[in-house]
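Notes from hallway chat w/ T.B., transcribed later so I don't forget. T.B. wanted the structure written out for a chain they're using in a teaching module, and asked if we could keep both sequence and C-alpha cells in one place. Agreed to drop them here.
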Amino acid sequence: MRTNFIEDRNEIDAVIRACKTCYLAMSVGDKPYILPMNFALEGDVVILHSAQEGRMWESILKNPKVCINWTLGEELAWQDVRVGCSYRVKSKSVVLEGTVEIVDDYDEKYRCLELLMKQYSDREFKFGEPAVKNVGVFKVHIDELGAKEFGAKATTPWNS
C-alpha cells in the first residue's frame, strides 16, 4: 500500500466537501490548541464561526496563522495480517496552512453563515439580527494546501 499525493484541486475540494468536520489548530507561544469545527469552503477561503470569546478566539487574535485538517475514510487495510507495520488506515487527508481574517461586516457575516449551512443542508435558512451580530465569523485564507491518499493500492505494470 502506498501514500500518494493528491495534486488535483478539484479532488482536494471534493475531499474537503465530503467531510463534516475540520480540525483547526492554533498556537500562541508554546501552547498549541486544536478544535473540531464546522466549516464552509469558498474558493481559496475556509469559513468558520464561533463565539467571539474564549481560548480559540483569543488565540486567533494573538496569532492569525492557523492550520486546518480534514480526513476522509477510516477503513483498516493491511498487506499481511500477521505484520503490524503493514497495517494502514485507507483515507484521504487535506492539510491547509492559512491566515485568519475576522469578518465584521453584517452582510458578509450573514452571507458566510448561509455558506456554512449549505455545507450541511440543501435547505435555505434565515438568521436573526442578534444571532448574526453575536456570532464570530472568520475566514482562513489559504497560504499552503496539500493532500494525500493513504493506503492506496501499489501500482505495478500488471495492475495499473
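Follow-up for T.B.: Confidence is low (pLDDT under 50) at residues 156-160. Might be a good example for the class.
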